[in-house]
Specification:
mainly alpha; 3-stranded antiparallel sheet; globular; Phage protein
């Protein structure tokens, strides 16, 4: 893979700093302050993605930042798919 093919999370962080937040701020942004387990489950799922570099940036666990917009969109999409599937199952 050529270097120009890599997604540059650091460049994205510099160009869009308002989109990248620390873990504690992400939890507040997602309004999951009271849902510690659910929040961690989502992050574990996102960390397991092949393209997790689109969502998480950092060289150490202690300096990781998270793209709040992409993570919000990911969770929202998964939630809506589940809701739609449940509704379709109920109608069948």
């Amino acid at each position: 893979m050529k270097e120009e093919d890599f997604y540059n999370a650091y460049k994205d962080k510099l160009e869009n700093p308002e989109d990248w937040v620390e873990r504690s701020d992400l939890k507040i942004f997602l309004k999951m302050e009271g849902s510690h387990k659910k929040f961690n489950d989502w992050l574990i799922e996102i960390e397991s993605l092949e393209d997790n570099y689109l969502y998480i940036q950092g060289t150490l666990a202690t300096n990781e930042t998270f793209n709040k917009v992409r993570i919000y969109n990911y969770i929202n999409n998964k939630r809506l798919i589940k809701k739609r599937e449940k509704r379709l199952k109920k109608e069948a």
